[in-house]
């Protein structure tokens, strides 16, 4: 049974026992050698495939190419194995923290993999690249990697359920650093004492403001989770060597909660698995059918339905206004409530546009589809009729949708909204959708077939056909992979593809 760990700020004079600290509770969950249930194993395989799909689609984009160049400048030549870099022949090995860096950026670049939203938000698939890198480097097998991924998802989801970061403008990767450190503790069978210090160091080095997701959003949005994975690996390395962490990192009077989150009077209940309880949190997460911020998924599906049902609404001359009634988070983060003029700028970056629901809804309404490349193309964003219609789209918070966003009941939890379109003739068209079609409760929930189809679709024309089949075979055998076979848990680009991208020289 899940148990709540009570967390509050303590003055130094309390001398809060290590075993009463949240970082210790996380460490104990990571060190608990429970079996991974079959349905969790199945979903882990799905998410490994999902990550690979979006990685393939981003191999030649600039941020992943830059990160890959940095990683390849750090080859590994020590007594262990090193780790593979996405797109590169697996015979080439780099230091695992740099592999996690490059592969993490490739996974995150298109904003196209899994999500969990509660008190905070997250992309828990970001745990996978650093865990794979260290598993390859240290000679762990597929079963050990499965256990580690289950832990990473569990800890990140549990923290996201309980502790809001975005309310205090702290980037959500502050929950990812501890979850990766915990997952690595599981992978390496580390004792709680070591995991405890790794979690503390990982949290301390991953707390940053969320300006990375505000205003003119830059390529750093793709790098931030990869940075968390990289520094978590380094934290584990130090902790294994006996180095300690700021303690108590969460509860201290000068700690994260007191000065970065809800302050000295804060109190949280973090739900964590009880001893012996399986780690099942991955089953509460969901992936994306569309390459855009998760709160836009249901609204894209709604817009493409309206495209077919009411094609007249795609013409700005027929529309007076489009108002999207939605949750507080959607309104203030990707809606007009953010008060970011960049969300209405046809010259804005791709990263900005994928955090602009006015833009996304407009293009999905006009096109009836959403494409990870074409829908963000500069000429698509600048099309005059799109710009005209786009400027008529606003969002507003609806308390009912905010309540559903934060509901703990999976049947009520929703991230969609209600759209009211007023035509120039005075008609008001109303439509709503609670969850995306691909959501477990949606019209077309994603299962293995859909994950494989997503991989095939994004890999077509990028990977060789035999490489597509090779990867899918390896991924679907994940629980039984030997340590030697784990090197095959990567995608290999055809000869010459990666050479089509050049990056400026840096320091390395």
UniProtKB/TrEMBL annotation:
Keyword Lyase: yes
GO MF entry, a single one: 2-methylcitrate dehydratase activity
Keywords: Lyase
The enzyme's E.C. designation: 4.2.1.79
InterPro entries linked: MmgE/PrpD_sf, MmgE/PrpD_sf_1, MmgE/PrpD_sf_2, MmgE_PrpD, MmgE_PrpD_C, MmgE_PrpD_N
A Pfam family of this chain: MmgE_PrpD_C
Record's catalysed reaction(s): (2S,3S)-2-methylcitrate = 2-methyl-cis-aconitate + H2O
Every MmgE/PrpD N-terminal domain range: 21-267
Subunit structure, interactors included: Monomer.
UniProt protein name: 2-methylcitrate dehydratase
